[in-house]
Backbone:
């Protein structure tokens, strides 16, 4: 039991260390506010929309791309249909009739990375991006990204700030807070040059990236993570354009959410195995020294804390039940107004350490919310703090199980 | 390029937060000890006052004593606090041991006073002296404590005095010798009868204490809880 508690203290220390480190990074370099400045030059851009059975959201995705404040002759939209079986083909065919800017391609199903590679090979433009068919861009997102490329010629890829599109249910609100937290730590990873993923919703690459390091790989169904690993391996800089906002739809059911997150987490584990040499390797800077080790630690320590809590609760419940059975003392319920007595409050060091971790987490979420000028409600926070601790361990366990059995995590 | 200064600074800040957490927790624990000490002093004064009152009255006026009942509730509340502090700080902590000794003395004094009053006023209180050990040699003590707690909650007038058998306190050791208490524990002395050893279920305990029938039962939760039984 003592060892168990020591493990929890270790988890808390690491979580706190990580948050403190990110907050120091924030104070060192606060995210710049959005300006009305325009880029000096607008490069040609291809946005690939890989789609597989996306009839529900594809029109909204394409409409948002057409709404980008960018010259039509410099922006091409490539819808690569990865063998959809639903009405995606007809819907896009109808839509493209009035929008010659959009090109539609149908190919045999081969996985998202094959659709992306198809688009990259077809396109000849200077910048190549991707937008998942369940996401929508804000009108100035591309301009903001181009400004970032212009600011620093050594930048090879840019990821946007992601927000959840119109959360309704408790599960969606939980994810809205989680994404907002993500906005903060992604920006801080950017500050320390250690972004670990180039997510499907609107990550933009210079064409040279693919000439230098090749196309997307299958990468355990997390090609967007693997390419970031590969870019770090090749010393290609990735940054975050926090003023470029992308809205994404999130899983509505617990089942779909677990499947999605288990895929991400399992992908992280398996890519970590493939790129294990980067771990704690100063050659890869903060990515190798901080982000990777902490990511992996968070994975296992999250599982550890959950196991410890479940074990403690079960042990207590079992002991009580056995005692009740042995003593013959009946279960009694006393209904009375609880009276507050500070004496019996749990004021252990662990309580205060947990308060510190929670406090910094809330600070990070508030900062993330400020960066993207989000509109999180009390209900959002309530959903996050009520659900996340129960749900996250489920996908971690599922990912670990999948990785242990070397079973590829399904897309959907 | 990673920044070693930042790594070090983050480490120091995190350590400082942990030290602060430790300091706050320790300060609150000190306040707890002070709170228990304060409660013990108040009880000691009340007990002394009762004893003096007892001496003064000589030919005891039982109605006055009835108006000022001995301190079961206060002692139980103190026991609850002490038990919590013992759990938080560990039973070996010097301050906890001192508080426990003081508490034990108060229990013995209360027990003696109760006996004197019952003899003079011809009352028939029901009392249990419960001897436990928390050094790991009494696996049944925890369950016995549960049964006694339940009984005390059910019968608020039942007087349970629990004693740590291994406490290094001469008054307690004298009581143990006088009552001829031996290991293995738990041991119970019900209304000054011969000691009963071993774990007793609720049913057994009710059979051992037919006097319980004379006590009023509680319909609401008593403020008392288990004294330290581990």
Residues:
């Amino acid at each position: 039991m003592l060892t168990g508690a020591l493990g929890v203290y270790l988890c808390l220390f690491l979580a706190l260390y990580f948050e403190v480190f990110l907050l120091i990074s924030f104070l060192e370099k606060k995210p710049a506010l959005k300006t009305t400045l325009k880029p000096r030059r607008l490069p040609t851009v291809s946005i690939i929309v890989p789609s597989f059975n996306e009839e529900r959201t594809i029109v909204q995705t394409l409409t948002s791309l057409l709404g980008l404040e960018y010259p039509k002759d410099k922006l091409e939209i490539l819808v690569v249909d990865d063998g959809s079986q639903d009405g995606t083909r007809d819907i896009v065919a109808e839509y493209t009739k009035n929008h010659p800017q959009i090109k539609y391609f149908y190919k045999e199903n081969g996985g998202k990375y094959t659709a992306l590679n198809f688009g990259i090979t077809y396109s000849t433009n200077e910048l190549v991006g991707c937008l998942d068919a369940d996401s929508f861009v804000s009108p100035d997102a591309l301009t903001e990204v181009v400004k970032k490329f212009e600011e620093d010629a050594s930048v090879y890829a840019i990821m946007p700030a992601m927000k959840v599109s119109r959360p309704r249910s408790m599960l969606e609100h939980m994810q809205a807070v989680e994404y907002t937290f993500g906005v903060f730590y992604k920006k801080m990873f950017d500050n320390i040059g250690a972004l670990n993923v180039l997510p499907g919703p609107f990550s933009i690459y210079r064409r040279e990236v693919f000439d230098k390091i090749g196309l997307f790989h299958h990468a355990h169904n997390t090609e967007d993570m693997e390419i970031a690993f590969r870019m770090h391996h090749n010393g290609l800089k990735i940054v975050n354009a926090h003023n470029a906002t992308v809205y994404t739809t999130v899983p509505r059911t617990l089942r779909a959410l677990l499947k999605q997150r288990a895929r991400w987490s399992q992908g992280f584990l398996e890519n970590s195995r493939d790129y294990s040499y980067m771990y704690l390797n100063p050659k890869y800077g903060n990515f190798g020294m901080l982000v990777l080790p902490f990511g992996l630690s968070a994975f296992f320590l999250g599982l550890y804390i959950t196991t410890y809590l479940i074990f403690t609760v079960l042990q207590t419940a079992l002991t009580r039940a056995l005692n009740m059975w042995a003593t013959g003392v009946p279960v009694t319920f006393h209904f009375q107004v609880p009276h507050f007595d500070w004496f019996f409050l749990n004021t252990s060091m662990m309580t205060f350490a947990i308060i510190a971790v929670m406090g910094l987490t809330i600070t990070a979420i508030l900062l993330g919310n400020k960066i993207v000028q989000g509109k999180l409600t009390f209900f959002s926070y309530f959903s996050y703090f009520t659900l996340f601790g129960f749900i996250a361990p489920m996908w971690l366990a599922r990912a670990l199980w999948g990785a242990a059995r070397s079973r590829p995590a399904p897309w959907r | 390029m990673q920044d070693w200064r930042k790594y070090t600074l983050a480490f120091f800040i995190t350590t400082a937060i942990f030290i602060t957490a430790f300091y706050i927790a320790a300060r609150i624990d000190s306040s707890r000890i002070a709170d228990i000490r304060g409660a013990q002093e108040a009880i000691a004064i009340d007990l002394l006052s009762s004893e003096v009152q007892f001496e003064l009255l000589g030919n005891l006026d039982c109605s006055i004593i009835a108006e000022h009942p001995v301190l079961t509730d206060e002692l139980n509340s103190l026991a609850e606090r002490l038990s919590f502090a013992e759990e938080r700080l560990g039973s070996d902590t010097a301050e906890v041991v001192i508080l426990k000794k003081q508490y034990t003395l108060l229990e013995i004094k209360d027990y003696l006073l109760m006996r004197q009053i019952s003899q003079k006023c011809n009352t028939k209180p029901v009392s249990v002296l419960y001897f436990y050990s928390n050094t790991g040699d009494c696996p049944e003590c925890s369950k016995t404590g549960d049964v006694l707690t339940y009984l005390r909650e059910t019968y608020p007038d039942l007087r349970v005095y629990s004693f740590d058998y291994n406490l290094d306190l001469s008054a307690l050791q004298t009581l143990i010798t006088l009552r001829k208490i031996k290991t293995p524990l738990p041991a119970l002395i019900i209304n000054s009868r011969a000691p009963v050893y071993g774990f007793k279920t609720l049913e057994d305990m009710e059979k051992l204490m037919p006097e319980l029938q004379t006590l009023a039962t509680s319909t609401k939760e008593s403020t008392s809880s288990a004294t330290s039984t581990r």
In short: The longest helix of chain A spans residues 285-327.
